[in-house]
Amino acid sequence: MLEIWAPYLHELGWEWVPSKEHYPQAMRLRKDELPEGWIIAHCLQHAVAICDGVMYDTRDHSRGGSLVVYGYFRPSTAVAVPASVAPIVGP
Predict the structure, then answer these.
(1) Which entry of 4, 19, 71, 80 is 20 to 30 Å from 44 by CA?
(2) Is residue 82 part of a domain?
(3) Residue 18 belongs to what H/E stretch?
(4) Please, is 86 exposed, middle or buried when counting C-beta atoms within 10 Å of its C-beta (0-12, 13-18, 19+)?
(5) Is residue 55 a part of any domain in this protein?
(6) What total number of domains does the chain contain?
């Protein structure tokens, strides 16, 4: 999946951050393990939009905070992200 949407996100100015750069074990889909701000987390066969630990998705894919995050995209300084959006799924 990543090979399909990664080139598009790069073209829009988002940068890839492998989770192993920050967590030698495994980063999980949990608020306390994710960076602040807007990110798009790459999990098992799924991508999740997240802002300040709040998931914006059709349902809660976190598996109770145990789902591994392989890495995430974050906007570069040139990318404009919305200041406020209502979450579909809360923390």
Answers:
(1) 80
(2) no
(3) strand 14-18
(4) exposed
(5) yes
(6) 1
DSSP letters, 24-89, are SS-EES-GGGS-SSEEEEEETTEEEEEETTEEESSS--SGGGTPEE-EEEEE-TT----S----SS
DSSP state of 12: T
- B/e letters for 21-49, b = 16+ CB within 10 Å, e = fewer, are eeeeeebbbeeeebeeebbbbbbeeebbb
The answer to whether the predicted template modeling score (pTM) of the entire model surpasses 0.70 is: yes
What is the three-class DSSP state of 3?
helix
- 50 class by beta-carbon count within 10 Å (0-12 exposed, 13-18 middle, 19+ buried): buried
